Amino acid sequence: MIKEKTDTIQKTDLKSLTKQELSDYLNELGLAGYRSDQVLQWLYQKGVSSFDEMTNLSKDLRAQLKEIAEVKKIKVHSKQESTDGTIKFLFELDDPNAYKVEAVMIPDLYPDGAANRLTVCVSSQVGCMFGCSFCATGKMGYFRSLTHGEIVDQVQIINELTEEKFDKKITNIVYMGMGEPLHNYKAVVESARIISDPLGIDLSPRRITVSTVGLTKQIKQLADEEIGTNLAISLHAADDKKRDEIMPINESLNLEKLEEAVKYYFMKTEQPLTYEYLLFDEFNDTPQDAHNLVKIARWVPSKINIIMYNDVAGVALKRAREERLNKFMKTLTDQGVTATVRRSRGDDIDAGCGQLAIREGQEKGKSLVKT
């Protein structure tokens, strides 16, 4: 009796391959080099999820690819739109756990409603390992990192919406959603390359900002990569004592180590950077905090982005009051520091990172926070 064959081919997700790996994969199938450019464009510019849609490939080639490969794509689970135009997306990943991640589209509109800037804040991980006390995502813990394909999917899907809604493509991307981008270094760098590729989203690297809580080794590595993106440091306190209280990473990677990494980054790239500083009422908004921040701003050419906090349920820290913000800003500007205030957006739609996922009942993952 002939034994039936039950083994199934483990298909390759083409979006799990880097651009070079995709080229090598198709080359091993005996395909001409230009085919990888065609496939890349279908995957990341046109956002297709089936080989049948790749109409400039022959039917035989499409049939061959169907047998051995697949195209995974995230999908919109839900979205909320704020009265200020901010749109919060909850995406469901294509994996057995059906994990969910968030992204936010933040429009800056002219008085007539036309779009000036359309910024997208993307996630790089499901949850986050680093447990910052003020962050809803930090309360989730860490589950897994996203592939570069899953990161680009967020941008591609939202890009379709902005073209339909505003007749304009996304103008800026920030890696400031769920997760620590430099903890998912390879996928974040590859996604940034694809986003800036003419065959991908075709967005200038100068319009892409990668944020980090201060992973010093990866900051230096990013400097060496020379991919041309901007760097933002999630600082949120200007001395080690206060930073230790709210950011567990500071216990091992303190401000002295961060200073060394930042100076290396500027030496290699000659690019100024941004410090993100959430202003908390009567915690990090004193005159002494402002003076300490001035010293940090002078490490290398930089600017300070003061962020008005989106209050998170269960977090004792609260948004600073306007009078304290004004005094804090005056100290910075009197000392010649370039500083701007980023107002909270989407207060009415769970726009704080991780809030929507927590509300959906996400379990608890791994964390640096000792329990």
What can you see in these coordinates?
β4 (87-92) and β5 form a beta hairpin. Strands 3-4-5-6-9-10-11-12-13-14 form a 10-stranded mixed sheet, with helices on one face. A two-stranded parallel ribbon has the order 1-2. Strands 7-8 form a two-stranded antiparallel ribbon. 43% of the residues are buried. The protein is of the alpha/beta class and 371 residues long. It is built from 12 helices and 14 strands. Helix content is 35%, strand content 20%.
Task: Enumerate how many helices there are, as a single number.
Answer: 12
- Global Rg: 22 Å
Globular, elongated, flat, extended or rod-shaped: what is the shape?
Answer: globular
Helical residue percent band: 25-40%
Physical arrangement of strands within the biggest beta sheet? 3-4-5-6-9-10-11-12-13-14
How does the major sheet shape up?
Answer: 10 strands, mixed
End-to-end Cα distance: 59 Å
Instruction: Give the SSE order as H and E letters.
Output: EHHHEEEEEEHEHEHEHEHHEHEHEH
The stretches of 5 or more residues where confidence is low (pLDDT under 50) are: 1-6
Report the average pLDDT across residues.
Answer: 90
State which percent range the strand residues make up. 15-25%
**Secondary structure: number of strands:** 14
What would you call the structural class?
A: alpha/beta
